[in-house]
Amino acid sequence: MGTQENNSGTCPVDRGLMRVGDRWSMLVLRDIERGLTRYEQLRTSLGIAPNILSRRLSALAEAGLIAKNRYSARPPRDEYLLTDAGRDFLPILMAIGAWGRKYNGGGALSRHLDAETGEAVRPVVVDANTGAPIGSRPLRMEYPD
Amino acid sequence: MGTQENNSGTCPVDRGLMRVGDRWSMLVLRDIERGLTRYEQLRTSLGIAPNILSRRLSALAEAGLIAKNRYSARPPRDEYLLTDAGRDFLPILMAIGAWGRKYNGGGALSRHLDAETGEAVRPVVVDANTGAPIGSRPLRMEYPD
DNA sequence: TTGGGTCACTTGCAAAATGATAGTGACTGT
DNA sequence: ACAGTCACTATCATTTTGCAAGTGACCCAA
Questions:
Q1: Which of B 9-48 lie inside 8 A of A, CB atoms?
Q2: Is B53 exposed, middle or buried (0-12, 13-18, 19+ CB in 10 A)?
Q3: C-alpha pair distances (Å), A106 with each of A74, A103, A109, B12, B14
Q4: pLDDT per residue over A64-103, tens digit each?
Q5: What is the pTM of this model?
Q6: Nucleic strand D near CB of residue A76 (< 7 Å)
Q7: Between the CA of residue A144 and those of A9, A76, A116, B47, B48, what are the distances in Å?
Q8: Out of B47, B110, B119, whose CB is closest to A10?
């Protein structure tokens, strides 16, 4: 057989996708960030079936990206809030958004502005060590033993 | 109803996910980048069912992320190569990988090294305007009319 | 030249996930 | 007492995924 046949166990991308690798999960995170933290808000915003939304919310909570918080006992009202892990995922959504705008951007799209400068945010993935955008320098992979 | 109920049509994240919003598609892109460009290589590397792989490859080709290239007529041999759009998606996979390493990183994981410095790449999403990591500055959303 | 072996798939069918629709229970406000 | 909201669950049809087996083009060795 080849050099390495199946390294899914050692691939950090796979590890990430195990937790959020579907469309609804990401859109839920996006909406929570937009301030749509309640079940009904998410349901109407996304146009998702209620059973599916329930399952996605449970899965995201189990995966540690969101936490359910009862903010009113009577009437019983819950909100879903991002955890640290969930908040850390948001930049990835911005990067996906930038890609979507570039390659599937017909029509007018919403966007993020820097609150101070007022300029449209342009998300790019860089290597924190060099500051260079990923793809601008040659890379090499290293596999564990 | 609320401020804006359903902006999926104007959301660039959704636009992006329309094209690659599933696990297998992303893993296929990752593997192609690793040099596994042929059907059999992808199938054994991913452990994916052949019919599913076929469908994913067609979908990715239709979405413009990869292109099928017959590099040998006899015997008939094909390879799948990244297009510009596909290559532009790779940094997102690196960002997902960094997240996966941080929050689901048990055991030894593979990683990318800068070919020149030899240091492990640390992918971060920044705003190209300010250079500041996304999340470190307050943002505001702007919706189209 | 027959007989395996590889590559790149397709076909058929079972299992799982998704989605539409209806309904439930706790409440609130009139 | 009665309509209305919120946060769901239950049921069932549809869709997608996954497994196993098979197919066609070709190559190489006996």
A1: 9-19, 21-23, 26-27, 30, 34, 41, 44-47
A2: middle
A3: 45, 9, 8, 10, 12
A4: 999 999 888 788 888 999 999 999 999 999 999 999 999 9
A5: 0.92
A6: yes
A7: 11, 49, 44, 20, 23
A8: B110
